[in-house]
Amino acid sequence: HRWTTDDIVTAQIAIGEISKIKQPSGQPLRYLDLGCGNGSVLQMTSWGLIEKYDLKAFGIEARSEAAALARRSLSFNVGKENVGNLISVIHGDFRDLERKVPFEDGKGNNNPDQLTNFYHTKEEKFNLVTGTP
Questions:
Q1: What is the arrangement of strands in the sheet containing 87-91, beginning at the earlier edge strand?
Q2: Between the CA of residue 111 and those of 5, 27, 87, 130, what are the distances in Å?
Q3: In whole angstroms, what is the distance from residue 73 CA to residue 51 CA?
Q4: pLDDT of residue 108
Q5: How far apart are CA 21 and CA 111, in angstroms?
Q6: Model pTM?
């Protein structure tokens, strides 16, 4: 991962754009970060949304080491109680997840409950999607 301000700018724009849209009451805000890497955009965007919205956030990452790092970083910075409940990192290729192909992995190990939650949330459509630059 390269260190630039791109992640900060992406998160700030995402938060600004979603705040322009009126969220129906009683509906969670469904957020997806594609190619989340170490989770920096997912984390910063979630920080900006978690207090204002009923948040369901997912990061998708194909590299198992990066997915594991993102989970670790999120547990330190947004709390272990929120990781897997409000914010989840799924290790896999989004194209495989779309086809519901089981994704076998080692270090990035997916929690079956988080995958089920992802598939259920995906059926409802995402309100916000970011792609890590």
A1: 87-91, 55-61, 29-34, 128-131
A2: 31, 24, 13, 22
A3: 19
A4: 46
A5: 32
A6: 0.84
